Every structure is written in structure tokens, then in C-alpha cells.
Amino acid sequence: MQSTVNYLWHTDDLLGQGATASVYKARNKKSGELVAVKVFNTASYLRPREVQVREFEVLRKLNHQNIVKLFAVEETGASRQKVLVMEYCSSGSLLSVLESPENAFGLPEEEFLVVLRCVVAGMNHLRENGIVHRDIKPGNIMRLLGEEGQSIYKLTDFGAARELDDDEKFISVYGTEEYLHPDMYERAVLRKPQQKAFGVTVDLWSIGVTLYHAATGSLPFVPFGGPRRNKEIMYRITTEKPAGAIAGTQRGLQSQLVPILANVLEVEQAKCWGFDQFFAETSDILQRAVVHVFSLPQAALHHVYIHAHNTVAIFLEAVYKQTNVAPQHQEYLFEGHLCVLEPNLSAQHIAHTTASSPLTLFSMASETPKGLAFRDPALDIPKFVPKVDLQADYNTAKGAMGAGYQALRLARALLAGQELMLRGLHWFVEMLQATCRRTLEVTRTSLLFLSSSLGPESDKADDGADAVRAVQEEEVFPRGRNGLRHGRAPVKQLQRRGAAGSATLLL
């Protein structure tokens, strides 16, 4: 057991360990409140005095819900080691979340947006106070659950942090190699002598790698054998890649995110965005509302992100980019009713949707349905190596578990899609039937009116009504092997015919 004046902990309750300190779960001696204590080791005291106190000074300056709070600075009894008493985050770190097999292919979109919002807010507070972190990575982003069960992410570990204005530079090297800016990587990992100075944008590179890792479950730049086994190739990948190049399929949220990551993962600091532009672009994403659209031709659910002040025309264009259904051919159903979206209206008029209650999109164009497109999870199942290797076997088993969870996620998406597909087709057939009934009723009324006007010719008119009814039914539900697809397009045609029949009655 170890303790300070007000806090007590057991060395078995280790939360994390670094080169200069260890972090433990501790309790307040009086209240029993759980806290995290950072206990500095003897190696930490070999650093210059100003470096030793820098973390205390930085944390005292910060006060934000997305930054771990500092409660007190105390000392252990006998050894008089410095101890930082901080807020305890019970749900581990973002790294532990990403290490879970169900997130092997990235966080769910909703959870990723929570990470993005929290990291951006925390970093914005750092820059407002002129602080550069210098060691942004998933392991230094803690997670706890709010009162309503929502995730809250907080930046932590300010051992490498220091005050630095936008136009200032530093030459000391800190950080974790997978998340280091290439210029720092060259000097810290490859041990190549160079006298480059670094600015605040090195944090942007680390943020870009972290966000990519959270979105996809993997690092953006990985050489064969891994980044720690092939360091020279790792450096060449990051420095020789084309400007703006980044892996990732551009769909939904990713189409908004990829340009941001591409512009912060730039080696040349002159080409890299500054924090002002990064905050502006990420805020643009976070201020958008999501509209859930289920495409019947694709049998797929899409997330369309738009601003409330956008017009419906912008929404229709965004749907076109994801579904290839042109705006003039888009028709929507919502909760069983035809939903008419006027292009000039504000997007605020679009109904509130959820994943289980989306807008249902069908196309008025005679196109062949594209069907589902997904990657077979079996392709991601790794192979076990013949020789016994505990670490390799662990990684392989973890990869297999990740592929299993991906297959489960895909199966759930397919089942949900099947339900939405059946429901959408049911609504579509009901709409067709209602339109046909209205059109036939108008036609019948028109013929009755004509028969009363023609007198002796009424018998012929009755025969004509039967013929028209047969023709109408054959047009709406034509016979053939393709079944319902033949009766899909004429909704507007039937509406026009109904209007023409009404005009005949008025005459």
C-alpha cells in the first residue's frame, strides 16, 4: 500500500505506466471517492526542474469537461515522490475501446462522432490557452460514462505538454512513434541528426492518425510486418505519399471526414492545415444533422449529413452522391405516406428520421436495382502460423474475433435491411393500389356522366367503361416474369390521368 496525506492506493491497482510515472486507482481516505493518482518515479527527477513542474502548471491552467481534472498535488510519505491526484475515468481509454474485437473495424458512426466532438472541444481549449500536447494518441484519451450512459472522452497525460503560441517552435522530441509527425519520427525513431524545429501543427498529425484509427480500427500508414518492425519503410510511406492521399471509402460521414484527415496528415507544414481551419471544418461536420435514407433499389441504409439551413435541393444532391438516383427521379415514402420534398424549401421541413424509421427512397427511372455491396468478412480472417508463437497466436485469434464481430454486424444490418425492404415494398404496393382506385373511380364517373349525356348510346358507354377498366388494370399490373417491377414507375402517370378525368367532369 502507498498513500499521501489524503489518498490511499494499492500498487496492484495499476492503470497505466510510462517512462517517468505510473498511474494507480486510489481512494480518498475520508470520502472513499475514487481518483487516479500519477506517481512519479526516480527517473522523472533526472529531468530539468522546469520540465518536472511543467505538467502541474499546465493542468492547473486548464478547466474543461473534455480534459481530465487535476484535484491536488501531494507527496508520498517516506520517499516524498510527487503525486498528481486526478479525475478517475472508469471506462478505460479510447485505445482499450479500439482493442475490443467488436471495434476491430472501427467505432460505430454514432460513437465516432462522440469521439470527434470531445477531442475537438478538448483541443480547442488547449489552443485557447496556448498549450501544445505533443502526445495525442488513443491511449491518452480517457473514457467515462455520463449520467445518462453516454460516452465522454477526455484528454489526459500532459507530461509532454507545454505552452506554445501558433508562431512559436520547439526542438525537443516527445510522443509515441505510430502517432509522431514524420519530421519528429525521423529524429526520435530513426536517430537521424537534423535540426528541424516543430510547431503546434505536430498535434494535428497525431490527431489525424488517432481519428483515422478510431474510424477504421487500423493505422493509416502500416508497412509490411508492422510499424515497429519496419521503421524505415514506415518513414518512407509517410513522407513519400502523394499530397492529399489517404485510404478510405468516401461514403456518408467518411465523405466529410476524409478531406479533413488528408489535409492534416501532410508532411510539409506549409501544406498542412492550421488549427483554425481544422476547428472550422470539424465544427461544420458536428453541426450537421443526420437524415436516414433507406434506398429500395440498393436495399441499403444511408446516413446523409446536412445543415438545417441547407435547402432540400442540397439534400437531394447529397442523396444522389450516395445512391446514384438523380434528384428528378427521387421519390420518398415516410411511415407509409408519400413524402413530397420541394427543392426550394429549407431542410428543416424534412421529417425527423431514425435508423428504424428512415425516409424510404424509390426511383422513378427504369433502372436495374444495384443490390447489396459489402466485403465478405471471411476475407479478413487471418491464418494461424505453423509454429507456436504466443504473441502471434494472440494477434491471430484477436483478428479472427474481429472478423466474427464484423460478420455479426453485417448480419444485423442485412436483417434490418430486409425488414425495411419488405415494409417499403408493402407501402409502395399500397400506394399504387390507392392511386389505381382513384384513377378508376374518376374514369367510371366520367363514363357515367357521358352515358347520361348520350342517352341511347349509354349501353355502348357501359361497354366502353368495361374496356377502359381492363386496359387500366393491364397498364398498372402488366403480366410478365418481372412482376412488381413493371408496375413501379407509373405513379405520376396515373396521377396525371386522374387530373385529366377531373377536367373532363368539369367540362
Automatic annotation (TrEMBL):
Annotated Gene Ontology MF terms? ATP binding; protein serine/threonine kinase activity
Q: Which residues bind ATP?
A: K38
Keyword Cytoplasm in annotation: yes
Task: From the Swiss-Prot or TrEMBL record, state where the protein is found.
Answer: Cytoplasm
* Keywords per UniProt: ATP-binding, Cytoplasm, Kinase, Nucleotide-binding, Serine/threonine-protein kinase, Transferase
One biological process term from GO is: positive regulation of innate immune response
- Domain Protein kinase per the UniProt entry, residue ranges: 9-295
Cite the PROSITE patterns for this sequence: PROTEIN_KINASE_ATP, PROTEIN_KINASE_DOM
What is one cellular component GO term in this UniProt entry? cytoplasm
Q: What is this protein called?
A: Inhibitor of nuclear factor kappa-B kinase subunit epsilon
Provide the taxonomic classification. Answer: Eukaryota, Metazoa, Chordata, Craniata, Vertebrata
